[in-house]
Amino acid sequence: MKNLLITLTALISSVGFLAGQDRPQAAPLPQIDVLHYEISAEITPENGFLKGETKVRFSVPQDVLTLPFELNNRLSIIDIVDAEGTSYSTSFDGVESQRVAVRGENPFRAGAEKTLTFRFEGALERQEYAFIDTPRAEKAVIHQDGALLLTEGRWFPSYRLQLDAATADVKIKVPLGFSVVAPGVLQPTEISGVTEVFTWKSAAPVTRIPVVVSRFFRQEVEQAPVPTTLFVGEQQSQQDLKPLLTEINQVLDFLSKEYGGFPFEHLNIAAAGNVSLPSAGAAGLVLLEDSVLSAKMMPVVDLARRFAVQWWGYSAKPKEVYDAWMQDGFATYAA
Q1: What's the Cα-to-Cα distance from 45 to each of 178, 212, 270, rounded to whole Å?
Q2: Are β-strands 64-70 and 146-149 bridged in parallel, bridged antiparallel, or unpaired?
Q3: 199: part of which helix (H) or strand (E)?
Q4: Three-state SS for 320?
């Protein structure tokens, strides 16, 4: 705890210096406060297709005519209705096509709490690369070996998710043989014919909701300072992962001693594939690329930074988009 106070004092001093420099004006007040996401989706790896439904429960702090949600521009909204069955219209931002303005017949009134249900679908096929070994940069992609749906890929309708934390239920249907990893706690799976449904519940508010689909092998990590589960593909399952797991345990032990116990009840670590990730995962979930899992020389500092984000990015959250840089800054310092 003493080290935590010293760290905060040093970094606050740096922030005070930066505050004196030019910075954008404070962001406008949020138009809604999202309380909960209930996301259901069916993923078909064979043709890269996603069909989903998202219920967004939110409160309205001030009167507003339209609500700006975000959705991947390769996905189409089928309809939007509220709990009474009233339909809402949409229009896309001409400059940023991933912004969707939602409007009803009447304004959204201050003090109200509403639930909107979005039905959407679309193809998120993998882009063709010239070199098969090139790490891919897609943020939302479905392919024959699974899927990687990152928050940055806006794979479901959301509102300021990385700043407006909300609880979430994620329910994903996939063909038998595939598994799904998402933030939260895994509930009992349901098998229906040739498909299986995976449900993950986040009781604590989250700011990122990534989903990884693959033919995972699941392994409980022994002697970890926090209950930890590793999800890897067939290739990684045949490797000697003991050096990696030993390093992860040492990193978690160091961070826990320096900055307090792990901020979540359980840690899941999932292989993300041959990709270049823009973020390290979500609350209680760390994503690792093939380059990390298969590295001959363990990238210790980079590994530590990814896990430090659990303390400095997902437990302590930025207030405004202009403060988001502090997440990586604190995590890098901690590593």
Answers
A1: 10, 12, 18
A2: unpaired
A3: strand 195-206
A4: coil
* Residues 78 and 168 grouped into a single domain: yes
Token representation of residue 194: 């040739």
Helices (H), the chain: 2-19, 234-237, 242-259, 290-293, 300-312, 325-334
Domain boundary among 207, 233, 251: 207
Average pLDDT over residues 35-54: 97
Whole-prediction pTM value? 0.87
SS3 call for 13: helix
Task: Please state the domain count of the chain.
Answer: 2
Domain residues for 330?
Answer: 216-335
Task: State pLDDT tens for residues 216-274.
Answer: 999 999 889 999 999 999 888 888 888 889 999 999 999 999 888 999 999 999 999 99
- CA 258/CA 317 separation, integer angstroms: 19
User: Across the strands, what pairs with 141?
Assistant: 148
Does the residue 25 lie in any domain?
Answer: no
Least Cα distance to 57 among 32, 77, 86 occurs for 32
Q: Which residue has the tokens 């979540």?
A: 264
Q: Is residue 283 part of a domain?
A: yes
- Same structural domain, 72 and 172: yes
Structure tokens at 307: 């896990």
* Cα distance between the two ends of the chain: 16
Q: Taking a C-beta distance cutoff of 8 angstroms, is the pair 74, 124 a contact?
A: yes
Phi, psi angles (nearest 5°) of residue 73: -75, 0
Ramachandran area for residue 193 (φ above 0: left; ψ -120 to 50: alpha; else beta)? left
Q: Which amino acid is at 298?
A: M
- Which residue, 241, 174, 160, 167, is CA-closest to 212? 174
> Nearest CA to 54 among 38, 77, 67?
38
